[in-house]
Amino acid sequence: MTVVETEPARTSAPVTEPAGAVPPVADEPRRIGGPTRSGVLALCGAAASALCVAVLLFGQIAPFSGALGFTVTWYAAFLVLYAVLTGLEEDGQAVRDRVMTAVLWTAAGLLFTALALVVGFTAWRGREALPHGNFFTQDMQAAGPLDPLSNGGIAHAMLGTLIMIAIALAITVPLGLACAVYLNQIPGRFSRFVRTIVEAMTALPSIVAGLMVYAVWILGLGMQKSGLAAGFAISVMMLPIVIRASDVVLRLVPGTLTEAAEALGAPRWRTVWHVVLPTARSGLATAVILGTARGIGETSPVLLTAGFTAALNADPTSGPMVSLPLAVFNFVKSPEPTMIARGFGSAAVLMAIVLILFAVARVIGGRGPGHQTKRQARRTARASRRDIERYGDSNSPRGAENCATSHPQPAPDNGDSDR
Amino acid sequence: MSVPEVSGEPEPDRPVPRHLHTARGVGDRIFRYQLTATGVVVLGIMAAVGLFLLLRAGQALRARGLGFLTTAQWQPDVHNFGIAAVLTGTLLIAVVAVTISVPLAVGTALFISDVAPRGLRRTLVTLVDLMAAVPSVVYGLWGLFFLQQHVIGLSRWLSTWFGWIPLFAVDGTQPGEPLASDSVYTASAFVAGLVVALMVAPIQCSVMREVFAQAPAGEREGAYALGATRWGMIRAVVLPYGKGGVIGGTMLGLGRALGETIAVYLIISPVFVIQPHILQTGSNSVSSLIALHYGDASEFGMSALMAAGLALFLLTLAVNFTASSIVARSRSGAQSEA
């Protein structure tokens, strides 16, 4: 943005043009932004000299140990040197801009490095347990803490996670989507109030959700700890997340579409069912999947409500049940290395599930509301062709012509506009 | 609009807005009732959280009175318990987390909205969202088995050079003594805060990025046209515009940090004294207290835990309400005319 380059092309071009005989010099567009040679050189120079400074200073300024201290020293020296080097040829504004750009790159780099470390570390430590096939097919009933990894597995936890999240989805999807539609379609003081409460509940501590179900279901109604109770606890936690995410998506549905439906005389429920929900389908799917990803990974509500067992239990209504995060939590509390390895293995499986859910959400939700996949676009095109034929049969030929021209393809910009 | 009457009517009709009459069919009425009913159900569930905690906590709160807020011990069976220690620990961990995460989150949000190469932005947004969805137990594992040993050096350096600040002091070690045992620096509020910071930073970042991305293009271009550098533009346009988002995102992260259970539970070693030294081993938090004691609690002990949960619930609720009202009141998110 700050780069101001002199360009001989523009001044020379008008001179050469009238002559005609000489091939005109190509009119190069001026580059705005982007790295310049001196900028890159300053960056590299600062990095190199900061390395030298850090090597010199390290161990002299403070008993600062480990790679972390070295990196921090290097980075501080780098920022100062970079400012000085840039200051040799630019003014103060530009120096500040360059330094802050470097700082922003660092902040983002740190965050994404941390993500890579978290995911990578879990996968790396999980490498001991994951190659064993029995890890996925057996439960821990027959495996003691000292047993090798070739005995016992986490089938019970995987099944438990599946059942709990199914229960939670069965509750949150209808209730959450209906509530989001309510917030959007029936405005008023009450729905504003509900929205405020839901937004405040998005950050409800998950252990409080577990505590609430514990208070109502187990203490209040005298039920056992079970998979059902854990499913309820996860639902309480997921519900605000799903509602809020779907609310945001529904708000993005173009008003022209709903107005068109209303203008055609559709009652509100038909408008919602046939226009609003299909338009926002991909976004709603994303909202639900993201909520699922959060719900699958929660430990504390399950910890309070599901109990703990080492055996496979497929009945959510009775007996304790284990979910993957809870299994991780219990494995790593043990001092035995094999148990810790199992814990990391389960954590890697959990991460993989979350990653897959995320990838699915990305594929489904990658497009905005109203944008269709190729197949959906073909289907709507077919439907409109059928409509045209139907109108053509019932009306006079002239009417059919009119229908054909005045019946636009729904979502005329579908297919390629999101590429 | 209206055609002026030239016929010399003494009092032209004042334009009265036409009364719109909505005739709702049976289907629509059922639809509306059903939707309103779901709204009520959701509200009921949310209200039940507070209500049942209050009901269950009543016994313990009546028995303890105000002492509940000032006692550091947790011995519910001899009626000597309070949340002074755990609440202090919760707040310290959350403050450490927010102090570390906010610069990271603001930087990353600005990076995604203004600095990153255009083609990379959507990938980065997905990565941030993914990071927000990584289960907390995975962060806890990472903190316990990976981060902790790498942070000891930093903790020691901080306590050696800034030990004169009470917050960074560590008992049981002499400043400058290089051979002090490492174990006094592990399992501290600082390590827990660091892990929680990484958990909340993506959440904060996605809130802030959304607001930064909405900063009006006209004003951005205006700043550039006046000769601003990119950082100058960010300071003059994006940051003032996104102030509400920054504050709101910070508070949202604070709410999450206050309630984090498993990662904190895995890392800290629980103590029941008010521990103001964040670098020193031993800390506590409300949620890890609940996770620690729910299993062996008597009926009265459970009531005491419910009371602690209620305190945590009220605290996060207050933080969240503040956050959402700040975001709603600021200019951020408003449609710009430019």
TrEMBL record, chain A:
Supply the PROSITE patterns for this chain: ABC_TM1
Q: What is its main location?
A: membrane
TM segments?
40-61, 67-88, 100-124, 154-184, 196-220, 226-243, 343-365
Report the gene name.
pstA
- The organism's place on the tree of life at top rank: Bacteria
InterPro entries, sorted: MetI-like (IPR000515), MetI-like_sf (IPR035906), Phosphate_PstA (IPR005672), Phosphate_transprt_permease (IPR051408)
- Quote the biased-composition stretches of kind Basic residues, using this chain's numbering: 372-383
Give the family this protein belongs to, as stated in its UniProt record.
Belongs to the binding-protein-dependent transport system permease family. CysTW subfamily.
Query: What does this protein's UniProt record list under function?
Result: Part of the binding-protein-dependent transport system for phosphate; probably responsible for the translocation of the substrate across the membrane.
| ABC transmembrane type-1 domain span | 158-361
In Gene Ontology terms, what is a biological process of this protein?
phosphate ion transmembrane transport
Which PANTHER family does this chain map to? Answer: PHOSPHATE TRANSPORT SYSTEM PERMEASE PROTEIN PSTA (PTHR42922:SF1)
Q: Where is this region: Disordered?
A: 1-29, 368-419
Q: Which UniProt keywords apply?
A: Cell membrane, Membrane, Phosphate transport, Transmembrane, Transmembrane helix, Transport
The biased composition feature labelled Polar residues covers 393-408
Protein name in UniProt: Phosphate transport system permease protein PstA
Recorded hits in CDD domains, A to Z, give: TM_PBP2
